[in-house]
Amino acid sequence: xxxIHVPCLEDNYxxxxxxxxxxxxxxxxxxxxxxxxxxAKENGVNLKLVLxxxxxxxxxxxxxxxxxxxxxxxxxxxxxxxxxxxxxxLENGDKLSLGTDVSILSxxxxxxxxxxxxxxxxSKEDKDLAVFTGDTLVxxxxxxxxxxxIFEGTAEQMYQSLCVxxxxxxxxxxxxxxxxxxxxxxQFALTVEPDNGKxxxxxxxxxxxxxxxxxxxxSTIEEELETNPFMRVDLPELQERVGCKSPVEALGEIRQxxxxxRG
Length: 263
Prior knowledge:
Layout: E1 2-8, E2 12-19, E3 24-28, H1 33-42, E4 46-51, H2 57-60, H3 63-69, E5 74-78, E6 88-90, E7 95-98, E8 102-108, E9 117-123, E10 129-134, H4 155-166, E11 174-177, H5 182-192, H6 197-211, E12 219-220, H7 221-227, H8 236-241, H9 247-260
Parallel strand pairs: 3-4, 4-5, 5-6, 10-11
Antiparallel strand pairs: 1-2, 2-3, 7-8, 8-9, 9-10, 11-12
Helix pairs in contact: 4-9, 5-6
């Protein structure tokens, strides 16, 4: 399995997922279809599937156009998310195949939107593990590895999505989020846990990556559990630091702080 970043808009990422045996590909959130198809052509792959994480325009806005450009293309989205151009609706636990070696599991991860879907992708014999989290987990913040904003759900739903569903994936799983927000997210994370050396170390690395014009995505589930305050709310010391007595309460408190934080 091969995964290719396709930078879109100002800070979005689409991703090509390639089954290298069959040369078939899926694309996650192709908001700029022509750019995505150009990358697909460069890599000699046959695009078969669109995997839409949620209905917001900067993720689903290219679906109608890419369907016009690739007749017969299947467009997947959450059952209750009203995704533009959707041909096939997914529920939690639904499974898809790409080519001969790639399996895709639909994970319902609501809160940013009610029907938000994350896609857990594995290759044959589970050699490669990846999850495409859209705006539910926005690298080191919630939603985009914690880019998350609670647009259509509750703190309880976000806790379930982040700290139960996604946190239960194998720690080496690579996390591909929908935006390039890592530096800002880690800067905020240090305001919550100023003594967390792993956050400081990751921030230094991320700043260097961006200075070189390189992506900070993917992270891993293990890194998120070490540096993302929204995924660390089960820790009593973190709850105490933010003045809360439960994980959900702490998550809501941190989200409120993030909403007010201007960096």
